[in-house]
TrEMBL record:
SUPFAM superfamilies tied to this protein: MOP-like (SSF50331), P-loop containing nucleoside triphosphate hydrolases (SSF52540)
Family listed: Belongs to the ABC transporter superfamily.
MF annotations from Gene Ontology: ABC-type ferric iron transporter activity; ATP binding; ATP hydrolysis activity
Membrane-spanning intervals of the chain: none
GO CC, one annotated term: ATP-binding cassette (ABC) transporter complex, substrate-binding subunit-containing
Keyword Cell membrane (UniProt): yes
Keywords: ATP-binding, Cell membrane, Hydrolase, Membrane, Nucleotide-binding, Transport
InterPro entries associated with the record: AAA+_ATPase, ABC_transporter-like_ATP-bd, ABC_transpr_FbpC, ABC_transpr_MalK/UgpC-like, Mo/tungstate-bd_C_term_dom, NA-bd_OB-fold, P-loop_NTPase, Transp-assoc_OB_typ2
Name assigned to this protein: Trehalose import ATP-binding protein SugC
Domain of life (superkingdom): Bacteria
Keyword Nucleotide-binding part of the UniProt annotation: yes
Gene3D superfamilies per UniProt: 2.40.50.100, Nucleic acid-binding proteins, P-loop containing nucleotide triphosphate hydrolases
UniProt EC number: 3.6.3.-
């Protein structure tokens, strides 16, 4: 296990990058604490796999350094970093049995046969393949082969870090839940530093201690699932986390109120006038439907009953807005306004969340 430090790290696939836009990974400084489980979350092409491959040694960064427990490993090959990496698509030895595939990393390190047998049996049970341990990998399904890849990553107990690059893409939904549970148990039992790349917010939020949200090659927020949900540091985080995501409105900020479509909306505190593009973000849970009186004019488009709550889709001056109502709560028949709970409002300047005193909050 190791503390992983990213020091002024940045990467461009161009030989001579001339601007920030030429970098697939914008400058990043961060410590990945020893023994914590992280999820790298973002849409396709945001830089997640680039960052993971730099940490693993498959890619050398254009700028900056990677350190394991304070030791510079930027130029060290993957084999010297003592990490295990599981890729999106399964990599197995078809001519070997499942047992031999799982044992391969341990045999390479000269581990005693009885210890190899113990660990292989344990991991075989974790991935639900005890009955197939003596089958050849050839002919197994794609999800079975990916379970072997996961098992080969988990079979070593002495690694500095376990890196997972969207490892559950080919796994069926039920098995995904079971394997995520097993990965969390593995982390709890052995305390490995784990970094898990995914574009699926459910995978990220249920797996990780800390979620690292990436957007356009930049880390925009690192936090617990609760922090990401309650205080999105960037409008993308609010949009990407939650289903439906956060509603974002262009607004003029006037002290303790915002003005949207010329309607005054109370804010939870006093905010100074911003010189940039000002917006407010309100999660659907904090949007209330009203009939007449104060509020932003809106028209109900449709209602979706998803069991535990209703999602109300509305139109407010051409902008789609989402509101969620608790199970059993009626939708007012004449609803033509939306009102926001001030406690659930975040204020943004140029897409970044600002505190009431006007400081831009760090990612």
């Amino acid at each position: 296990m190791a503390k992983i430090t990213l020091d002024n790290l940045a990467h461009s696939y161009l030989p001579k990058p001339e601007s920030e836009d030429d970098f697939a990974l914008k400058e990043l400084n961060h410590d990945w604490q020893d023994g914590e489980a992280y999820a790298l979350l973002g849409s396709s092409g945001c830089g997640k796999s680039t960052l993971l491959n730099i940490i693993s040694g498959l890619l050398r960064p254009s700028h900056g350094r990677v350190l394991f427990d304070g030791q510079d490993v930027t130029d060290a090959p993957t084999a010297e970093r003592n990490i295990a990496q599981v890729f999106q698509f399964p990599v197995v030895y078809d001519t070997m049995t499942v047992r031999a595939n799982l044992a391969f990393p341990l045999k390479n390190r000269g581990m005693p046969a009885d210890e190899i047998a113990r660990r292989v049996q344990k991991v075989g049970a974790m991935i639900g393949m005890e009955a197939e341990l003596d089958r050849k990998a050839r002919g197994l399904t794609a999800d079975a082969k990916q379970k072997i890849s996961l098992g080969r990553g988990m079979v070593r107990e002495d690694v500095n870090a376990l890196l997972f690059d969207e490892p559950l893409t080919v796994i069926d939904p039920h098995m995904k839940w079971e394997l995520r549970t097993q990965l969390k148990k593995l982390h709890h039992d052995f305390g490995h530093t784990m970094i898990y790349v995914t574009h699926d917010q459910t995978e990220a939020l249920t797996f990780a201690d800390k979620v690292v949200v990436m957007y356009d090659g930049r880390v925009v927020q690192i936090g617990t699932p609760q922090e990401l949900f309650e205080r999105p540091a960037h409008t993308f985080v609010g949009y990407f986390i939650g289903s439906p995501g956060m509603n974002v409105f262009d607004a003029d900020i006037e002290g303790n109120a915002a003005r949207i479509n010329n309607v005054r909306v109370p804010l939870p505190a006093v905010y100074p006038f911003g010189s940039g593009h000002m917006q407010i973000g309100v999660r659907p849970e904090f949007v209330r439907l009203a009939e007449g009186g104060e509020g932003v004019p809106a028209r109900v488009l449709r209602i979706e009953d998803v069991g535990r709550h209703k999602i109300v889709r509305l139109d407010a001056a051409g902008q789609e807005v989402n509101a969620t109502l608790p199970e059993g709560a009626p939708v007012p028949a004449g609803a033509d306004r939306i009102v926001f709970d001030p406690a659930g409002i975040n204020v943004y300047e140029n897409a970044w969340r600002i505190a009431p005193e006007g400081r831009r909050e760090a990612a």
